[in-house]
Amino acid sequence: MPPQPALRAIGLAPGTRPAQSHGHMDLHSGAPFWLVRNGLDAELEALHRDERCDVAIVGAGVTGALVADALITAGMDVVMVEQRMPGLGSTAASTALLQYEIDTELQDLIAIAGEPAAVRAYQLGVGAIEDLERLAAAIPDGFGFSRRHSLYLASRRHHARRLEREHRLRCAHGLRTEWWDARQVERTYGFRSSGAIWSADAAQADALRLTRHVLARACRRGLRLYARTNVIACETAGRRASITCGRGHRVRARHIIFATGYELPPMLSRGLVRLHSTYALVTEPINLPALGHGGWRGECVVWESARPYFYMRMTDDNRIIAGGEDVPFTNAAARDAVMPERTNRLMRRLRAMLPDVYPELAFSWAGTFAETTDGLPYIGTVPGHPAILVALGYGGNGITFSAIAARLLAGHCTGSPDRDLPIFRIDR
Fold first, then answer.
1. Whose CA is closest to 170, among 74, 225, 100?
2. What count of other Cβ atoms lies within 10 Å of the Cβ of residue 125?
3. pLDDT tens across 295-352, in order?
4. What are the helix and strand counts (H, E) for the chain?
5. Which pLDDT score is estimated for 90?
6. Are 290 and 274 in contact (CB under 8 A)?
7. Within 10 Å of residue 323's Cβ, how many Cβ atoms?
8. What is the dihedral of CA 379, 381, 383, 385, to 10 degrees?
9. Which of 123, 100, 82 is nearest to 211 (CA)?
10. What pLDDT was estimated at residue 113?
């Protein structure tokens, strides 16, 4: 890893995700100390007694937080356990680009899942961003949420025709997009490309602040949250279930929800996902006034059609987060060994995108993320275990998928299952 200057709180949890979100991964090294000094940790204990509840959630990252908030709002009694401290697994590695667009383009997803399910998955992504916007408005200090546009660049000339088809298809189903030719892209943002899909509906946030603020609110409303508590067994008996934790204490519940990032629950096959290594960086603050007029200033989140793709966004304090350079995951040592070279590649790509800026590296990191064949998350019941549910937001839209999971699982657990739940079932 290149030399790292002293870390500062910059309004986000350093982390990554290919594409947009942020998805789910595990940071390769311990999180900076300032990430956990926000007043929540001092109140948390490990599970020290048996518990009973309506729903037990395993995992206190962004997904678990949003699901817990939705369940408590629906009147459920909820217990949550987390093996680390809240937010310090996949969530701390999230770049928190919030997009309805998933890694699988709509035209390809239609071929895999059929038109109704594919279109609905995209529409649910738009609704999830709206849900997160409402949540941010309801929480004092919010969580760094801000609306943005999205720019999906055609990396090569032969990609442009495909992206034009994609744009027309999205428009036909009510998604707010425009096709920009290469001249319009360069005139507006200074990027050289073969054209781009401009989308109205995107956003960005601070994943760790989101998690901590939502969990703090949930605790005030009755959530019982236990940190440093490892689950060693999960048992089911008909439509009830229990988890056993490291000290032998048990949590019995009507439903157990696993919201564990890329770490699959024990009853699921490892073959359900593919693991990849990914790389990201954050720059020192950019002096925007020195740039004069024109050019990209963070108005949109940017990603590209090449695979693996490059992506970037700008933070509220004018730092740029960029990531990509994904490779198949073999082991953590191999992932981390190529980190300097991958970081250099990202910096060269970033400087090529912004030749008048010449950004300077502040911090870089590597992570592991999981993806499904179709790019959609797994949300719903584990086959053969009706009391066990999952909220596993694999792919490039982890936080957006988390918001979808919160709504769908709250409905399921309160006896009002949503018609959209089958889109994300494990055995689809």
1. 100
2. 22
3. 899 999 999 999 888 999 999 899 999 999 888 888 889 988 999 999 999 999 999 9
4. 9, 18
5. 80
6. no
7. 32
8. 150
9. 82
10. 97
Contact 214, 135 (CB under 8 A): yes
Beta bridge pairs of residue 275 = 370
The answer to whether 382 and 267 have CB atoms below 8 angstroms apart is: yes
In angstroms, rounded to a whole number, what is the distance separating the alpha carbons of residues 268 and 409? 18
Say how far apart CA 211 and CA 68 lie, in whole Å.
11
Q: Report the distance separating Cα 119 and Cα 107, nearest Å.
A: 9
User: Is residue 259 within 8 Å of 399, Cβ to Cβ?
Assistant: no
pLDDT in tens, 16-71: 332 333 333 333 333 333 333 444 655 789 999 999 999 999 999 999 999 999 99
The pair of structure tokens assigned to 410 is 């709250």
Q: What average pLDDT does range 261-275 have in this prediction? A: 82
AA identity, residue 47: L
φ and ψ at 143, to 5 degrees? Answer: -150, 45
Secondary structure (DSSP) of 116-184 = HHHHHHHHHHHHHHHHHHHHHHHSTTTTS-EEEEEEEE--SHHHHHHHHHHHHHHHHTT--EEEE-HHH
266: preceding bond cis by omega (within 30 degrees): no
Non-local (6+) Cβ contacts of 140 within 8 A are none
Alpha-carbon torsion, ordered 337, 341, 344, 348, to 10 deg:
-140
What Å distances lie between residue 213 and 55, 106, 200, 292, 398, CA to CA? 21, 33, 27, 37, 18
Query: Comparing 150-154, 195-199, 258-262, 268-272, which segment has the lowest mean pLDDT?
Result: 268-272
Pairing of strands 25-27, 250-258: unpaired
> 368 falls in which pLDDT band (50, 70, 90)?
confident
Two tokens, residue 246: 């490291």
Q: Is 34 helix (H, G, I), strand (E, B) or coil?
A: helix
Residues 6+ apart with CB under 8 A from 308: 18, 324, 325, 326, 327
CA distance 185 to 193: 7
Distance CA 326, CA 277 (A): 6
Strand-pairing partners, residue 279, are: 324, 366
